Q: What sequence folds into this?
């Protein structure tokens, strides 16, 4: 069963109780899902394993590589329990947080996170229950903090705590995350999303544990990560704009501009970027999205995001298939707008790379720039990239060409990982022996996959010698 998408941007969908059977997972893929997300904040290992296995069964039946993203929970900072249920905090009242494990009252509550007290200073703010309540620190030490309630309300036990503007002395990987990570890697995750990223060092720590077995994705949800945005993007393999927590710790009116800035910088660095959280939120309960949600998805597509993501809509909502179908239609409709192509071309920027000083990078960049121009000049039906590491296809996608990108790789793991990338259609193939056979193979695959017709041109890029990572140095135009 051969199939490909007519659109460029990708869809990531979260699997959960509403989408666990093989039937629904296959239907979701056919409806438009390119990458399935496993949320390790919920579910047992047995549940994740069963879903992993089903995705791989569907992949084998359909004959197209499917990506799997394992999303780690990260540190969850929460208040303790109350003696008599929820309390009401009033504006202006004094309220204390401390390490005392005793049950809370209307005047104090346990906050079992010494790392928070170690980082607090007078004047800092704490946000409670997703920012619904706000308190300001008056005095603090290593064991407690006395605060004044700025915005009151009901506070229940185990509600979350955010500390905006403060870099906490904690790792982005908890003990649970480390166990989850090993399970995800053993199952064969293609991407690992790291929550609570505060600085580039968090990604370096994760990369040392992953050891090249999966791509490292930074979830941007902390102001401290935004403060070091380019360094965080450079240290990652991909980025997720996690607008939920980002909108808690930063003013909501700033999030749209930050989203655009992140997408722009990811395109500059050639790193895939996902826009996530509340994209079609109403479809958890409704079979159709709001017009505002449709506009939100379209905005991310106009900006050039590689992918948009569904969370509870597909994991626990009543209409997971409808949510994917609507997102597919919104993307396709946006990309068919002439203004879309104009905006993508207008926002094409000079690229950056960690290897920017190398001659090899200069050659690869020159090849990809020429590829973009050549494909437009000859009206190429497709751009065919042969890649061992995925770098050639990533570079091609960074150029945002009008023609679809057909990515050929002998490495199935690479093909699966590239399923996240804008414009890329991954095909798992055997190694060609030489450049002439590559051209023949490229033409045959472009024809069989439905990307090109006989007598039409395609542009081929690759690296010689074959199998050498990062060596994009060949461009060829051939007629199918």
A:
């Amino acid at each position: 069963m051969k199939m490909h998408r007519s659109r460029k941007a990708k869809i990531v969908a979260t699997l959960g109780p509403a989408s666990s059977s093989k039937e629904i997972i296959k239907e979701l893929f056919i409806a438009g899902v390119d990458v399935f997300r496993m949320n390790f904040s919920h579910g047992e290992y047995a549940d994740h394993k069963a879903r992993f296995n089903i995705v791989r069964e569907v992949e084998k039946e359909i004959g197209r590589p499917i990506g799997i993203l394992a999303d780690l929970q990260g540190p969850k900072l929460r208040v303790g329990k109350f003696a008599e249920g929820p309390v009401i905090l009033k504006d202006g009242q004094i309220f204390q947080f401390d390490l005392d494990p005793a049950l809370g009252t209307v005047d104090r509550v346990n906050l079992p996170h010494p790392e928070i007290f170690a980082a607090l200073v007078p004047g800092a703010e704490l946000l409670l229950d997703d920012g619904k309540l706000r308190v300001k620190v008056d005095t603090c030490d290593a064991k407690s903090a006395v605060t004044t309630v700025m915005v009151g309300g009901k506070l229940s036990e185990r509600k979350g705590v955010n500390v905006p503007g403060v870099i906490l002395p904690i790792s982005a990987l908890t003990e649970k995350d480390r166990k989850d990570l090993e399970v995800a890697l053993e199952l064969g995750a293609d991407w690992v999303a790291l929550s609570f990223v505060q600085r580039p060092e968090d990604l370096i720590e994760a990369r040392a544990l992953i050891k090249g077995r999966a791509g490292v994705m930074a979830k941007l949800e902390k102001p401290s990560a935004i403060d070091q945005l380019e360094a965080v993007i450079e240290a990652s393999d991909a980025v997720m704009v996690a607008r939920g927590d980002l909108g808690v710790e930063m003013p909501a009116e700033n999030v749209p501009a930050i989203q655009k800035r992140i997408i722009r910088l990811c395109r500059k660095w050639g790193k895939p970027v996902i826009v996530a959280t509340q994209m079609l939120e109403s479809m958890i309960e409704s079979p159709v999205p709001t017009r505002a949600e449709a506009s939100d998805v379209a905005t991310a597509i106009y900006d050039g995001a590689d992918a948009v993501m569904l969370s509870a809509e597909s994991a626990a909502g009543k209409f997971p298939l409808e949510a994917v179908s609507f997102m597919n239609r919104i993307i396709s409709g946006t990309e068919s707008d002439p203004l879309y192509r104009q905006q993508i071309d207008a926002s094409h920027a000079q690229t950056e790379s960690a290897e920017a000083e190398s001659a090899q990078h200069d050659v690869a960049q020159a090849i990809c720039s020429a590829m973009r121009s050549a494909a437009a000049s000859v009206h190429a039906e497709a751009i065919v990239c042969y890649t061992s590491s995925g770098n050639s296809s990533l570079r091609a996608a960074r150029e945002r060409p009008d023609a679809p990108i057909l990515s050929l790789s002998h490495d199935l793991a690479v093909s699966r990982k590239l399923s996240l990338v804008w414009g890329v259609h991954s095909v798992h193939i055997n190694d060609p022996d030489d450049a002439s056979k590559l051209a023949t193979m490229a033409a045959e695959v472009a024809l069989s996959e439905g990307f090109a017709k006989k007598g039409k041109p395609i542009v081929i890029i690759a690296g010689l010698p074959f199998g050498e990572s990062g060596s994009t140095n060949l461009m060829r135009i051939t007629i199918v």
User: Anything to note?
Assistant: Residues 137 and 210 are 38 Å apart (CA to CA). The chain has a mean pLDDT of 93.
